[in-house]
Write a structure and sequence with these properties.
With 321 residues, this protein is of the alpha+beta class. The chain has 14 helices and 8 strands. It is globular and about 65 Å long.
Length: 321
């Protein structure tokens, strides 16, 4: 997660504390329920939750809540067709926001994933932070489609004792290291979400194949990659989805005067334009959600194709007069 915890994620701890009669822990900066917080403030909030509810409360802060967070970063993570796709997006998110804490993949395979929560430099995450982020990952993995999910803490004093099994948090949470997590699941069934705007059109088109036949090949590529712009699409993957070979797709796009990379970029720019009309979406969030490698890359490509950098394009279309 970014260094500055997003307001709606920090609200998980704040809301829990208020529900238990605690407005703000001592030393916390007062703020609204969805006000963003920095790393020190985040730790204070989580420590207050742990004092009152124990480690189980930290693990449960995100239960049932992520799917209702109306933010492009969270949507991009939830809109993943596989566990590797989800983890790849998280790795890019950490790089995009230059996060101090990040997760490192120790093992990834069929029905298994092992991660370590660590710092890029200096002291590692506090135990309360690792338990909270573990809870976020439990929610993410279930939401994207892991069925029969189980989690253990291999570095703890009870390395094989499940802290989560069959949709239920287990107690007591083992003591010791909570920064290493092992997840297993019986099967995976994708549960794709759809964002407002462009995705509503794409979702309807995907449900009606005969309507798609009237689209040009480039439009079909835009439609396909638009389902998950934060995913790193390859031409082979899209060709398979459209029922073409790689060469056939390249030839068809060439006949329409374009290429695969330009079609993918057009899908990203179309979504970026829609998101720029929302003043609550930051340029950084938009760049990540639309699949650009970093904010500078997003600004550079947007200006090259649309004639104005994103901030100026937004101002020209949203400011009065």
């Amino acid at each position: 997660m970014p260094v500055l915890l997003h307001g709606q994620l920090s609200a998980f701890a704040r809301d829990w504390l208020r529900a238990h009669g605690v407005d703000e822990p001592d030393g916390s900066e007062p703020g609204g329920s969805a006000a963003p917080v920095g790393r020190d403030e985040q730790r204070r909030l989580l420590q207050a939750v742990a004092r009152l509810g124990g480690p189980e409360a930290l693990l449960g802060l995100a239960r049932g809540r992520l799917a209702h967070v109306d933010e492009p970063l969270v949507y991009s993570l939830l809109n993943s067709a596989s566990v590797p796709a989800l983890i790849d997006k998280e790795q890019r998110l950490n790089r995009f926001f230059h996060s101090h804490h990040h997760v490192r993949v120790l093992e990834s395979g069929e029905g298994v994933l092992e991660l370590r929560h660590e710092s890029r430099a200096g002291p590692g995450p506090a135990r309360v932070e690792s338990l909270f982020v573990l809870g976020l990952h439990l929610e993410l993995l279930e939401e994207v489609g892991c069925i029969g999910l189980e989690a253990t803490l291999p570095g703890s004093d009870a390395p094989t004792a499940p802290v989560f099994r069959e949709g239920m948090l287990r107690s007591p949470v083992p003591v010791g290291d909570a920064s290493r997590w092992r997840f297993t699941w019986r099967r995976f069934q994708p549960r794709r979400a759809w964002a407002p705007g462009l995705d509503e059109v794409l979702a309807e088109a995907s449900k009606a194949p005969d309507l798609a036949r009237g689209l040009g090949v480039a439009e079909r590529v835009v439609r396909e990659v638009g389902r998950d712009l934060a995913h790193r699409w390859s031409i082979d993957e899209v060709a398979r989805r459209l029922g073409h070979s790689r060469r056939a797709l390249q030839r068809a796009l060439a006949l329409e005067g374009t290429t695969f990379s330009r079609s993918v970029e057009e899908a990203r720019l179309l979504r970026a334009e829609a998101m720029l009309l929302d003043p609550d979406c930051s340029i950084t969030e938009i760049g990540y959600a639309c699949g650009f490698s970093d904010t500078a890359h997003f600004s550079r490509r947007f200006k090259a194709v649309r004639g104005l950098p994103p901030t100026a394009w937004r101002s020209a279309r949203t400011e009065p007069g």
